[in-house]
Amino acid sequence: MLKYARRQDATDPLRELSRQFSLPHSLGGAPLVYLCGHSLGPLPRAARDIVTQELDDWGRLAVLGHEGAQRPWIPYHEHLRSGLEYLTGARSGEVVAMNSLTVNLHLMLASFYRPAGRRTKILMEARAFPSDRHAVASQIAWRGLDPRSELIELAPEEGNPVIAESAVEELLRERGEEIAVVLWPGVQYLTGQAFDLAAIAQAARRAGCVAGFDLAHAIGNVPLALHEADADFAVWCSYKYLNGGPGAIGGCFVHERHGDDSRLPRLAGWWGHDPATRFEMGPEFWAARGADGWQVSNPPILSSAPLVASLEIFRAAGIERLRAKSVALTRFLEQLLAPLPVTLLTPRDPAARGCQLSIRIGGTPGRGRRIFNALESHGIVCDWREPDIIRVAPAPLYNRFEEVLHFAERLAQALHTVP
Questions:
Q1: Residues 89, 227: one domain?
Q2: Which domain holds residue 308?
Q3: Most buried of the four, 236, 274, 401, 408, by CB within 10 Å?
Q4: Is the CB of residue 361 less than 8 Å from the CB of residue 317?
Q5: Which of 212, 56, 67 is nearest to 132 (CA)?
Q6: pLDDT at residue 262, rounded to an integer
Q7: What CA–CA distance (Å, rounded) separates 331 from 347?
């Protein structure tokens, strides 16, 4: 296996990409095996220079930097637009970098969740990321409705960790007239299951529902085609696979059919105003075209700057080439896990997953956590989810086949030695 891993690394056409990242080391200076990009991506080396440039421009220009900085601050979100369009498969004007994921989700639901008559419910997956559920439940309650009756949470069938897409379609056929919005993940955060967004959007549309997607674990991980999929809206964060840094600016997609629809209500702010007249400071709101019209505030420059560097790396690497390597990495990891006494929660079909594999550890209560701690003590950085799940994500931008092998060997050792 070692010879195979080293041969794969040596012939990998993307092998030099890892040099463009500052990968973490232990306190003693030893390199760590970093398999946690699904939680926080590492620092793109070029980001340091870009952030420094913004700090220098701030110090040199102060307020004049809004127009006179090397990358002027007023239209700063435009420096991110083409890269985000590329990764989401959006048309011009359909994406905007702004706020954080949950803020953007609230803004989208404020516009697209319009309960009326029998159509009052929101459909999402059971065990969704808690912030999504909090946002959805609060949006329902905000409208004077009861989340206990208006929130539909679709769970997998008994004994199956993942949700069959046919189950989504069947539920929409049966109860579609009750559902106003379908909010679905691109990749489910706990299991790593990837969904066919076009199929879900089409099923939602046949039922007369709005189709929205949370792409936190999908963008930069799997190829996306939001416009072609006919999604109504989508939201994401940028600190995971996009490597935008802690607290990085988020983003959203709004299909072009909605971008200039003045009938669609929104929570407005001055940065969503038409830029041609924004600084006239008039009392009336005239929305900017496309997704830009949902902005509420000017972009946070220092939490946007690292994303400039990361998006350039993605464009140079190519999402299809990254996807091919990702499939190879997870296939290798799955092969290494096969003889071990663990349960893989993530689908085995590469088309139904990204680069995350979720591994359930059996045994007595607390054993999984002890095994996770043993991995950590040997320089493996992955992720723990209660009560018994280790999430590991070999990212094609910076991870190597030999690192995957090292993880599997350490896991096997821990499974053998930890009671």
A1: yes
A2: 53-314
A3: 236
A4: no
A5: 212
A6: 84
A7: 11
Q: What percent of the chain has pLDDT over 70?
A: 100
Name the residue among 32, 68, 62, 22 with its Cα closest to residue 306: 22
pLDDT tens-digit readout, 339-392:
999 999 999 999 999 999 999 999 999 999 999 999 999 999 999 999 999 999
H/E element holding 154? strand 151-154
- The rounded radius of gyration (Å) of the Cα atoms in the chain is 22
Domain end residue (candidates: 314, 345, 368): 314
Residue 41 is assigned to a structural domain of this protein: no
Sheet arrangement for strand 342-344: 342-344, 357-361, 389-392, 383-385
| pTM for this model (two decimals) | 0.96
Across 114-130, b (16+ Cβ under 10 Å) vs e yields ebeeebbbbbbbebbbe
Of 83-92, 211-220, 261-270, 324-333, the range with the lowest mean pLDDT is 261-270
**Distance between CA atoms of residues 338 and 151, nearest Å:** 38
